[in-house]
Amino acid sequence: MTMAIRDPRIFGRMDGIAISLIALAAVLACAPVSAQTATPPPAPVSDQAAGTPAPASVSDIVVTGTRITSSGFNAPTPTTVIGEEQILKNAQPNIFTTVAQLPSLQGSTGASTGTFSTSSGAQGLSSFSLRGLGTIRTLTLLDGQRVVGANVTGVPDISQFPQLLIKRVDIVTGGASASYGSDAVGGVINFITDTKFTGFKANVQTGVTTYGDDGQVLVQAAVGKSFANDKLHVILSGEYAKEQGVGPGNFGEDLAGSRDWYRATTLVDTGIRNNGSPQFLYRDHGQAYQYTKYGLISAGPLQGTAFDANGQPFAFQYGSNGVPAKNAAGTVTGCYVGFCVGGDQSGHVGSGTSLQSAIQRLNGYTRISYDVAPDMEVYMTANVAQVKTHNQPNPGASKTGLTIQCANPYLPASISAACAANGITTFSYGLSNAILPNIQVNTDRRQYRFVGGLKGKADLIGTSWTYDASYEHGTNITDINVDNVSLTGRYNQAINATRINGQIVCADAVARAAGCQPINIFGGATPSAGALAYITPEAGPFQHTKQTQDAAAGSISGEPITLWAGPVALAAGIEWRREFYRVNADPYGAGVSALSPNSALYPSDPNLNSTVGSNWYAGNYKNGTGRYTVLESFLELNLPILNSETLGRANINGAGRATRYSTSGVVYAWKVGGTWETPLDGFRLRAVTSRDVRAPNLSELFAAPTTTTVPNFTDPFRNTQVLIIQNTIGNSALRPEIARSTEAGIVLSRPKWLPGLSLSFDYYDIKVNDVVSSLSAAQIVNLCFQGNTDTCSAFNLQNAAGPNFVNVQSFNLASIKTKGFDIEGSYQWRQPLGMDGTFSVRALATHVIKFVTDPGLPGTIPVDTAGANSGAIPDWKWLATESYDNDRFSITLQQRWFSDGVIGHQYVVCKPGNCPVSTANNPTIDYNRMKGAFYFDVGGALNVTKQVSMFFKVDNLFDHDPEPSPQTNTGLDVNPALYDTLGRFYRIGVRARF
């Protein structure tokens, strides 16, 4: 089944602060970063024929691992480079996919993640996560400059980048805050465009899965031309891409297309803690027994009575030979806590989730530059892009625990009679609500980004300096519209029907006056148009977010002095940035406030809470606004200390950055490292240690507030229960997260005895302290009661002047520790076995030794998620490619693999009769394994002429199915963060370059 993208309906001031530059020095040995990257294959014949300029000299290439521009300088921070040739060979409709396949990237988000969500705002958002530290701890740049966020967390959307002009991607796998500022805890991903592109190039491709869905089309074109004796250079590019998405499936276990791997795998809770049996059991075909597709009486004397599509009652078939106890608690004897195994599976909703969001991209980009002097360029870029996505979280809108009147006129006479015979007037009821239209989430992200700058070279005091000054303004507007969502209060009124003068109407007179029309939830009868309009108004949940980013930066780099081992290189700069956001939501979800849009579309309703909102079944977006400014400066030095034919070459590299945040004050970042090119042919060593920072983002600082009333809240200070107002808000007092990162590696780079070979091994160890983490109201109060004063200002339970309250906020309490190593190898064999062409092989692997998160809360323990394949961080992950290229054709093979793992390391595996006591931190389980996966891809290209080539690509050639990722509910039991959920994919296309 395919899905069409639907159009949504609704579319500081600089602080004057002087910050001192700080310099660092220390001695650590390491090897140059460029050694880690395989030598790119030669340009295709079509490029050479088109007169493409030769690659720039090494001295002109700025590698992202450093801000220093110096011939022969090698930074100590490991950097992986993906070249244009590799991007083209992978033939993806979005460059995001090519980069995200790298082993060091774990936990990135894209079109296949978050499809089960209604309110996250991240559906279809393509953003990177290095080292599994999250998208908020990975800094993504475009030509070394920041990009306005496409989400209130501050992360950009790669789908909005000008992808055809990207000539390489630098991935810095290590802390880089000293060089690039906040967020570079896991590393930096820098997209480098071809700023001097000349000529014309285009790419057209299409694709489809082996199941006939996710139809794709990509059209890209770019033109570059020089004028005024090559002083004026103009580049234009545009692209259109559409991926139709996959899914949804249907109720039960039926996935989209003919996919058959969904088995509703569930961790069922036996409720057993201490009799020697495991608490959790790994079982396929888990079945929730509180609801069915068309309705189930879930408690009381009529428990177990279900309704078919025609509204006729029948005895529900529970799995596990379950027998309803027909008590008030709704117990099912023979089943587990909330679940049976097997039986009637028709009410499942997990299979009805989109496997991949539909996505449509439009991108326009231009760059205009003018050479004012031979070494002075003034430039301007404009990037306007729109990305629309669409997904279905699940079918229907499941309800459990509904109280139904036995007098409801829609009930069959037999049920009314049974109520009377058993002396009851109401019963508990649950259903998947298959009679309601399925919820649809539509997002529309629009980016307007403009950069102006001046860069070049100048001589000063006998030294040549490179300089770069720029100003960037970016705006991102995101509209989220959710269709077919019911208002809970209206739904409850509509299902409570009565008969007046022979006509079935809503029982509540006030609701009738407000337009209520009844619905029949006993069976598959479609509600009337009037009833649907009442419970699911057309002006459904929406959120309109505007984010702006203004950034000014200036930097210089040069070699002011020369010492015994060579020139001392220096880079320095100052940067200013302002981040702002405002989010407006509908009054039904947000409540009525100064930030609410025109509430005339939302008539008053006595069944709805107009003050605090939260009236929707899902999609209760809130209003909010916030801003902060940043002023920072940095200094980086490279000191050569050794230049000897006998001992080799070595250098020390150090950098420091001082940053003032308007919300939290001054914080410092630094790095110290070095390289040593040993006397042994091709062997180099490198090491670096750094202090890195991540400042709280707009969402954490100024989260859109929500308010709920919580009765019977326990006050530990007075050992009593009180009524509180719970305010979920941001915390403007949050401090930056502080990370310490250490890396050390050895590299063999193109030795004379085998010049096509490059190998590297790099060990890393990262610890992040003061991690921003969310707490519940009870945790906030209890932490203060136990002596943690950080949370004491967030509540007042003895407020004589007003209501008691608890502000639910995030605090700097948690920590993350991770360590592991990367391995990379490449080899190029020119004219193998006498053939005309080049054979290339490249392999990258990452092994995560541990990834431990400590919540920092009493009663909790640190959890290691490395190797938990229900998450995003497998023990081992690798990527390998082999290719053969000549003037006529090329063929490329690619393998992607990650290792077997567990569901979670917190579980204790045991057999019945041999289990310890099951606890909240270490529950017992009978099976705790998740297989890894191996994917094989193949692609090739044929040069039709020197300017035109045809290509193909097949991903997941053997159509490997994903492994179940069992849940403790009936959600979609698969993990798209690791596993391919779409299956075999075919792509073909044509490229041209003139």
Give an overview in words.
The structure is a single chain. With 994 residues, the protein is mainly beta. The protein has a domain at 33-247 and 357-392 and 442-481 and 544-586 and 621-696 and 731-774 and 809-899 and 931-964 and 978-993: Beta Barrel (Maltoporin, Chain A), CATH 2.40.170. The protein is 7% helix and 43% strand. It contains 11 helices and 47 strands. It has a 22-stranded antiparallel β-barrel. It has a 5-stranded mixed β-sheet with strand order 1-4-5-2-3. The chain is globular and about 100 Å long. Mean pLDDT is 88; it is low at 1-60.
Evaluate the radius of gyration. 30 Å
Shape: globular
Low-pLDDT segments: 1-60
CATH class of the domain at 33-247 and 357-392 and 442-481 and 544-586 and 621-696 and 731-774 and 809-899 and 931-964 and 978-993: Mainly Beta
Strand content: 35-45%
Q: Between the first and last Cα atoms, what is the distance in angstroms?
A: 39 Å
Averaged pLDDT: 88
According to CATH, the fold-level topology of the domain at 33-247 and 357-392 and 442-481 and 544-586 and 621-696 and 731-774 and 809-899 and 931-964 and 978-993 is Maltoporin, Chain A
Counting helices, strands and paired strands, the structural category is: mainly beta
Helix content: under 10%
| Alpha plus pi helix count | 11
CATH-scheme architecture of the domain at 33-247 and 357-392 and 442-481 and 544-586 and 621-696 and 731-774 and 809-899 and 931-964 and 978-993: Beta Barrel
CATH superfamily of the domain at 33-247 and 357-392 and 442-481 and 544-586 and 621-696 and 731-774 and 809-899 and 931-964 and 978-993: TonB-dependent receptor, beta-barrel domain
